Amino acid sequence: MTDQPSFGFETRAVHAGAAPDPATGARTTNIVQSTAFVFEDSEDAAALFNLQKVGFIYSRLTNPTVSALEERIASLENGVGATCTASGHAAQMLVLSALMKPGERFVASKKLYGGSLNQFANFFPRSFGWQCDFVDFDDLETLAATVTPDHKAIFCESLANPGGVITDMAAVAKIAKDNGIPLIVDNTMASPYLCRPIEHGATLVIHSTTKFISGHGNAMGGVVVDSGTFDWSAGGKYPALSEPEPGYHGLKFHETFGNLAFTIWGHAVGLRDLGPNQQPMNAYLTLAGAETLPLRMERHCENALKVAEYLEQHDAVAWVNYAGLPSSKHYSLAQKYLPKGAGAVFTFGLKGGYDAGVKLCETVELFSHLANIGDTRSLIIHPASTTHRQLSEEGLKAAGATPDVVRLSIGIESVDDIIADLDRSLAIATGSPAQAAE
Amino acid sequence: MATMDTDTSLPAGHETYMDDHLLGILRGVKTIAMVGASANWNRPSYFVMKYLQTKGFRVLPINPGQAGQEILGERCYASLAEAAEALAPQPIDMVDVFRHPKEAPALAGQAGQAVSIGARVLWMQITVISDRARQIAEDAGLTVIMNRCPKIEYQRLFGEIGRTGVNSQVISSKRPKTMTRIKPFKKLM
User: Fold this and answer.
1) Which of A19, A256, A263 sits opposite B164 (nearest CB)?
2) How many whole angstroms separate alpha carbon A78 and alpha carbon B155?
3) Residue A71: its chain B contacts at CB < 8 A?
4) Is the ipTM of this complex over 0.95?
5) CA dihedral in degrees (A241, A244, A246, A248; nearest 10)?
6) Which of residues 68-87 of A touch B (CB under 8 A)?
7) What pTM was estimated for this model as a whole?
8) Residuewise pLDDT in 10s, chain B (189 residues)
9) DSSP secondary-structure letter at A266?
């Protein structure tokens, strides 16, 4: 965690990491579309390659535009440093590759974004030999009984996708600490404006910056933020960070870089060897998006609450799963961890089941029917007929994607227009009369 | 007091440092004695010394195993006292300690020597934590920094380290000074 009396969140959202360009005075961050950077001389090159000097060599490792975004997000999350990646999935691969060896295990929440469940349950064990034990994180007793010091990490989402589920991060962080392992929190759905997991004991925070941080549905990206609080050398459990690295003449990252070890490793080994660097153009768009994150999140949350309240009283709606509603079983956790709002992505169930869900998605006009969240635009998807259609009935239930489920990502349009689009479409899809309050 | 130095938790007041405090040290110090300086080019102490030299600091290596030899163009001394004697009447402003964190008695000894040579600052590197050393130095009026690296702090505070995704915590709309040397292109003919 950082240690200075800092500028306010809104100031850092605009300024962190982005001083004027020294060469030209350009005030916004330059898009440095260059693969490589000229050395001063051979000694300079040697120092850079040996990690004895920080600077730019090759954009797979570091790039000026991407570095500015890394510092911006590290600042917003109150971390000591950050490593940007091509996507959120690449961030998950990078963070676990620092901690895991083939045959080792980690523990993850059962309630994760479906893409993460796939990556953890299928790809990682098959291709990398990383085994994942899935646990319901609402059941802290079972979680505490499952986690052992042999697990290499605990992974959860602060606010789980598709929504309504909030992790008691302080309690989970304590379980991680008791076992001497790091807690990794995916903070994509909340964004650092609503929640900063490091303040609740997270060791590492990841994002798909594609969602709220960039916020405009136009730039892919991911990030790993390090709190700088974990002792990577204790017990020799994390040799990538504590033992000599053959690729750098036996340098030990934790010994050499202290609380910056994970961030330097993320670039010098993680990005170098795995290769999923973020594109400068995407970093530029994400920097611009991040400047308005606080304003957008306020409106996202305000609109989402109004839409959830509207849906909760709708006759055709069986249930609404939004942690900002007092009826949610996660309402009290939302008050603790997301006091500024419970996010903008949530699910609801239609009494008309599968067919009504499909019809609703086909009828809306303002909402976009697509597989993304965290856009300025309102988005809708019916998971059972799209993102989760390959799953069995049992699998759909476990993933919280039963045939009646519709997922919304509420945008920052006029909320009356969002509700009017739903009201008109629900009437057509379910045969239920229009119910929006005038 | 045998148990005192087995604790590696940071003493009160040393968990964090204000940027201005660190800047004041790095701006005020001119000569540094580096305890545990290595002649091996790939050890942190070697390249921290090399970096500090490029920033204009004079760094005197202290390492009994290398005494009499040169490291990065500077004669290596067996002890702080020897280095201070050789440099007199010029002062050694800061003692920078690279030692294994478990060598607690040695750290307290170095603190005592830092006091006796009249250094103003005792700086202990990342993972080098000793409350006993802190007490000895602070009681004699020295400024103590621990669990930090002067190279990393210099890079962070002077805007270099953001290049690897590190949160420098520095925010400014002033145009930074160009750090690149631009050499004129010379025609060969």
Assistant:
1) A263
2) 19
3) 162, 165-168
4) no
5) 80
6) 68, 70-71, 74-75, 79-84
7) 0.89
8) 333 344 567 888 888 898 889 999 999 999 999 999 999 887 889 989 999 998 999 999 999 999 999 999 999 999 999 999 999 999 999 999 998 777 777 888 999 999 999 999 999 998 888 899 999 999 999 999 998 999 989 988 887 766 788 888 888 888 876 443 344 455 554
9) I
